[in-house]
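In the design runs reported in the main text, the only information available to the sequence generator was the tokenized backbone. The following block is the verbatim input for one such run; it is reproduced so that readers can re-run the procedure and compare outputs position by position.
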């Protein structure tokens, strides 16, 4: 079996050719099973939940009352939601905190993203 490298060719050893063939066969014959693509010793991440939990929606008015800069900016709200869903809720140290503390963490992350701290440009 030959492998092309920078326009030239080199011969593969018999072991390399056999291993390459095994990988090609395992990748090509999956029959719709996504686990066939996962090599032994590796795991696949499950898709993340797309919607926000109900507790987020119910605690949001309380959070916005003490953080009005988020209420006036749709882009800050989007970053707040993103930080909450994909960082705070998946961090093992944060996800078990009360909802308002998790929102506060997400708010700090969003403010850091926009380069502000306590409403003052850094």
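Verbatim output:
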């Amino acid at each position: 079996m030959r492998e092309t490298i920078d326009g030239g060719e080199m011969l593969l050893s018999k072991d390399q050719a056999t291993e390459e063939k095994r990988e090609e066969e395992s990748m090509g014959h999956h029959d719709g099973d996504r686990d066939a693509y996962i090599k032994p010793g590796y795991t696949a991440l499950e898709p993340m939940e797309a919607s926000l939990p109900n507790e987020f929606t119910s605690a949001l008015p309380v959070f916005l009352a003490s953080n009005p800069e988020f209420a006036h900016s749709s882009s800050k709200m989007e970053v707040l939601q993103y930080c909450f869903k994909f960082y705070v809720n998946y961090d093992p140290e944060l996800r078990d905190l009360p909802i308002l503390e998790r929102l506060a963490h997400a708010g700090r992350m969003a403010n850091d993203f926009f380069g502000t701290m306590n409403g003052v440009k850094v």
